[in-house]
């Protein structure tokens, strides 16, 4: 195919008939060099059991919406979903009849200046193998739900620049694989849950500019792997538990 296609919306279907099979793998090979400089919405319809994203997807710099729909009898397995890591403008992903169990364990999710509302629980629980979550400048996030604390593989949790988040649930202690916890500039956060003492793998904790924080749990001293603690700008912390002061011996 010669020359660029200047469409803003592109819909591609791979179908199976009695005589002809249009395979996703063949499509990727044949159209890998296609030029789509203006595509903002991409709809991929499939009937195959295993679906591989077309090679050109990672080149769609203007893509904001990606819809992957499967009309086969069983949910399609996504093979190379990591290609979307290259799509810096992607705002929305929709799956229809797609298995997400094959997305792997090295998953990262970033929500920057997004409207989350009550949908955050359903969204994040769809990806139980997430290893990193970054949420920032999401003004409508008032609480971090217990449901989100069921992610056993999570190693990094960053929740920064929140003006309404006032507390964290006790279930935070269930994130036993957590190594990095950033809570920078959560201006209404009043404290940390006692269960934070369960995070024995935690190495990095940032509570800087949490101006409303007035207390820290004594179990902070149980964070045996903690090496970095940022707490500048926590003007409400007039005194620290002795166990927290003892952390000086292990902090870098």
From TrEMBL:
- Matches recorded under Gene3D superfamilies: Ribonuclease Inhibitor
Keywords from UniProt, A to Z, are: Plant defense
Q: Where does the source fall among the domains of life? A: Eukaryota
Q: Which biological process annotations from GO are given for this protein? A: defense response
Q: What is the protein named?
A: Uncharacterized protein
């Amino acid at each position: 195919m010669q020359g660029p296609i200047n469409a803003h919306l592109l819909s591609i279907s791979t179908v199976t008939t009695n005589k002809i099979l249009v395979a996703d793998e063949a499509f990727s090979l044949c159209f890998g060099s296609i030029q789509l400089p203006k595509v903002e919405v991409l709809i991929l319809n499939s009937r195959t059991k295993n679906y591989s994203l077309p090679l050109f997807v990672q080149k769609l710099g203007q893509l904001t919406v990606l819809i992957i729909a499967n009309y086969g009898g069983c949910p399609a397995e996504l093979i190379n979903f990591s290609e979307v890591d290259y799509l810096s403008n992607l705002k929305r992903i929709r799956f229809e009849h797609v298995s997400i169990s094959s997305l792997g364990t090295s998953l990262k999710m970033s929500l920057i200046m997004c409207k989350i509302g009550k949908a955050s629980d359903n969204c994040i629980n769809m990806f139980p193998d997430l290893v990193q979550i970054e949420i920032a400048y999401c003004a409508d996030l008032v609480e971090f739900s217990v449901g989100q604390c069921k992610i056993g593989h999570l190693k990094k949790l960053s929740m920064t620049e929140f003006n309404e988040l006032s507390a964290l649930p006790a279930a935070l202690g269930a994130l036993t694989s957590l190594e990095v916890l950033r809570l920078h500039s959560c201006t209404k956060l009043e404290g940390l849950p006692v269960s934070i003492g369960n995070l024995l793998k935690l190495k990095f904790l940032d509570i800087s500019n949490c101006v409303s924080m007035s207390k820290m749990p004594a179990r902070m001293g149980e964070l045996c792997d903690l090496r970095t603690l940022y707490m500048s700008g926590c003007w409400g912390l007039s005194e620290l538990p002795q166990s927290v002061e003892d952390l000086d011996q292990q902090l870098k």
